Amino acid sequence: MKKIGILFGKERTFPMAFIEEVNKRQVNDVIAEPVQIDKVIQGDCDEYSVIIDRISQDVPFYRAFLKNAAICGTAVINNPFWWSADEKFFNNCLATKIGVPVPKTVILPSFELPADTSNESFSNLAYPMDWQGIFDYIGFPAYMKPFAGGGWKNVYQVHDKDDFYRKHNETGQLVMLLQEEIIFEEYYRCYCIGGKYVRIMPYEPRNPHHLRYVSNFTPSAERLKLMEDIVLRINQFLGYDFNTVELAVRDGIPYAIDFCNPAPDADRPSVGEENFNWVVETAATYAIERALSHQPGRDNLTWGEYLKRSITKQLLSH
After folding, report:
1. Based on the structure, what is the number of domains in the chain?
2. Which domain holds residue 23?
C-alpha cells in the first residue's frame, strides 16, 4: 500500500479536501490520510511513500521528523533539506543568474546584536555601513522585509532615509532586506506544483486579505506564456514541488517579487472556489504520481537544477 500523508497546522479546508480528492480517485493501492506521529526514532520512518508538508516551517520538531522520513525514502513535498537552507535573499541572487527580473535588493545586518554575540563578533562588518550607497542603489520609496519568513509579517514601506532609520530601529534581531518598490500595473500570484503545473491568478495585494484574488487584470496570451516560463524556471532551479511566485508587471515586464512560499495559502475562503479546486485537484494528481513512482529505501526527494548542476560540475572537475 502506498500511503500519502499530509502534515498541517490550523488550516482545514485544503488538507481535508486533498485527502478526499486522492481517496475518491480509487487509484490501486494508494490512500491519503493525515500524518500521525506518536514517536520519532532515528532512521526508522518509512510508513509513508509521500508526505506533503504544510507546517514544518513553524514547528522545528516536524522539520526534524520530515528529514528522518526523507532519509528513510519518503518523498517529502517540499524537500526539507533545501527548505531549511533556502531564504529570500538567495532566491533573488539566483534569479539574477537565471535571467528572471527582480527588484533591486540588498540584505541588512540586524539592528540588534544576535543573542550570544558582541561588537567583537562583527570585526568584518564596516561601521558605519555605506548607507548612502545602499539608498542610491535602491531608491525611495522602498520596502523592508525579513530575509526569511513570509505572510506579510514585519513588512515596512519606507519613504526616505529618516523613515528607514526609524523603522529599522523597530526590527530587533531580524535580518532584513531592503528592496526597490515596483510600481506595478498588474500583479499575479502563481501556483506551481511539481515544477510543471502552473496556475496564474490575478491578485491585488492592496486589497483587504479576503479580496486579494478579486481583480480585473486580463493578460495577453504572450504575457501569460512569459509569466509561466518565469514561474517554471524559478521552481525548477529551486527544486520546489509546491510553491507560489508573485509577479508584479511594470512597463510590461514581470518582476518576481516573492517566490519562496513552499507552504502557500490554499484556504478556500481566501483563494476562492476556482483556485481552491485547481490546487486540490492538481496537488492530488501530483502526489499520486509521486506515490506511484516511489522507490522504497531510495532518495525520493526533488533536488533543483541549481544543486544538481553544482554537483555535476564538481564531479566533472575530478
Report:
1. 2
2. 2-81
Long-range pairs, 264-273, Cβ under 8 A, ≥24: 264/191, 266/11, 266/13, 266/14, 267/11, 267/13, 267/14, 268/13, 268/14, 268/17, 269/13, 269/210, 270/209, 270/210, 270/212, 270/213, 271/201, 271/213, 272/213, 272/214
User: Positive or negative, the Cα torsion across 66, 69, 75, 79?
Assistant: positive
Q: Specify the long-range contacts of residues 260-266, CB closer than 8 Å, at least 24 apart.
A: 260/86, 260/87, 260/88, 260/91, 260/150, 261/150, 262/53, 262/57, 262/78, 262/83, 263/53, 263/54, 263/55, 263/57, 264/191, 266/11, 266/13, 266/14
Residues in Cβ contact with 123 at an 8 Å cutoff, skipping those fewer than 6 apart: none
Grid cell of 154 as nine digits: 514585519
Is it true that the peptide bond before 78 is cis, omega within 30 degrees of 0? yes
Amino acid identity of 44?
A: D
Q: Are residues 109 and 64 part of one domain?
A: no
Local confidence pLDDT in tens for the 318 residues of the chain:
999 999 999 999 999 999 999 999 999 999 999 999 999 999 998 899 999 999 999 999 999 999 999 999 999 999 999 999 999 999 999 999 999 999 999 999 999 999 999 999 999 999 999 999 999 999 999 999 999 876 678 999 999 999 999 999 999 999 999 999 999 999 999 999 999 999 999 999 888 888 888 888 899 999 999 999 999 999 999 999 999 999 999 999 999 999 999 999 999 999 999 999 999 999 999 999 999 999 999 999 999 999 999 888 777 776
**CATH number reported for the structural domain that contains residue 22 in this entry:** 3.40.50.20
CATH assignment of the domain containing 114: 3.30.1490.20
d(CA 164, CA 212): 27
